[in-house]
Amino acid sequence: MRTIESVDMERITNVVDSPRERLIENHEKIVSHNYIRTFVEAVHSIILIMNEKREVLYANSFAAKALGERSIAEMIGKRPGDIFECVHSRDSVRGCGFSNACPSCSALKIFIRAIEASVEVTDTADLLINTGNQKVFRDLEIKMTPFMFEDERLFILSVIDNTNLNLLNDLEQTFFHDVINKVSALRGYMHLIYEENQMMYKDDYQFLEIVLEDLLDIIKTQRKLVDLSGGKQVLHISDLKIHGLLDYLVHFFRLVNERYADKLIMDDVFEDICFSSDEVLVKRVLINIVKNALEGSSVGQKVKIGARKLDADTFEISVNNKKQIPNEILENLFSEIVSTKNGEYHGWGTKSMKLIGEEYLKGAIEIMADAETGTTVKVKLPYRLEVST
To answer: What is the pTM of this model?
Structure first.
């Protein structure tokens, strides 16, 4: 919830509206300057040019269309709340800025900050507007930029409506919350059944336990990636050991598919390295790599996983299978969604491990293949993942 300080209303209420002739004259001056008109028309968002009284002198065609197919002429002289159909703009005959509700308006506060300090101000604002017979909140990103025009200080107002984007984010978080709760409840219920019938369901329980644990990790990973892509800092750094991760992978794939029981082995070059990173994301990357290697290997072939120190800052995890990936796929592996398997949804695992490993774990992923050694995936990671605040 945003805390809104009241603005200095004397600055607003003492303003005398400009004569219509003066507004039209200023509008025509702006229109006559091709570079200004070309600039604001090139921007794919709502752009208004206002004077210090917040009176609109010019609106780009995107604004005219977004605000109800209005003509630019009818917006001249109006103030932002009038144009956006703020519910409180009708509370006063003078419109936007003159009602009892205006002192706490978050949008008005942005305007006044820019006008009083003559600096660019960017902030978000909630605006309750009329849309036909309904009143709806709009989540707006507002930027006010001052500039001099023929000895007069004007302001470019840029408005981006993030309502649908924020709604989507809220729905995503609700989905993740509900699914995590349901899977956790299923795990709890399954554990109760196992406690009462341990001998009968031991193998089934172990299988379901690790599958549900992995499902939870997948959901948490996706939630984390959504948050990270939105600029939220949600990485959870913990101390990890390579040997512990390997034990987890071996146990996981052994239970998931009995064909993999003895295929995943430790390479001769293996150092039990200690490092600090986000465990959920590291597991996601390694599971995808090992899964691809196991699925791509031929009958009787082993998949080897190794680890070694590179320098004072980084180490390397390698996964190798003896089957060579085709060159035509290797060359385009990270530039597009490609896969050695058939089906619409294959190929995303490789794309995601590149994204997670490099963008969020600050590492590097390299894939090499030849007839002699087969296919090797190398993941270079820092000993300590630094989280920017």
So the answer is: 0.55
